[in-house]
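S.,

Sequence below, as promised.
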Amino acid sequence: MSDMISLSKLLHPQLRDKCMLLFSQEHFIEAARDAVVLVEDELRRKAGCTSHYYGVKLVDHVFGKEDPVRLRTVLDAERHRAAEQFFKGTFAYYRNYVMHHASGIHRDKCATVLVVASELLWLVGAGVSVFKGEETLNQLICTGQIDSARQLGMLLQYLDGRILPDEVYDGMFEMLADNHVPTEVFELVHDLGLVEWTRRDVVEPADQALGGYPTELIDIAELTDDGREMLRLCAERQPFQKLDAFRSAGLNFAFGRSGRRDVGSTS
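The prediction came back faster than expected:
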């Protein structure tokens, strides 16, 4: 019993509800199969995919080998591809194993399958469908990843063209907290590919924009095409104040802008 309680704590809630009773009744083959099928079903659902592909072919279909990418994990590009390989390897080995060699599934093997499937479900749950305009904005609000279109729009407008000294971001995160923008939302706009940063040497007139802050390198943020489209959608949904109003009094962190024209403001 204690072993089952410990295993249950490791499992994704959906998998726990679907498979733990089977596991406790020693229906190990059925529990393992249901776990793999659940991952496939959730992958299709989250990616908005009605395809009947399964296993490795489903992963290729969702992550873009044969078609445009349908789901992006909330990871940087390198780890996203690593996660894709994790999905493919798991399906290539475990799915084929539980579907075609089920007689070898005993208690320990089943527990392993359940834990691995749980990790995949966590990744699927943290994933975001590839940018689809207003559909993506609605999804972010409905899932509680952002409070409102205004919150996201003001952050995007603030970041566009923002210049910061090399890796000196503390003041920015203080300002975000003061304006009720969680760090998770800042990370989200990058995970969605809405903002990109470039780094370069300080040269005139950029050093003047930094107000004499001692640094040899600067980081410059710029909205991607998807970011600009999202900013436009946010401004249409919930008009927000100009950039200057999105600053916390007394925080001298806004070192400058790259000279790009503000978009999305209403005044």
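The longest strand covers residues 195-201.

Coffee later?
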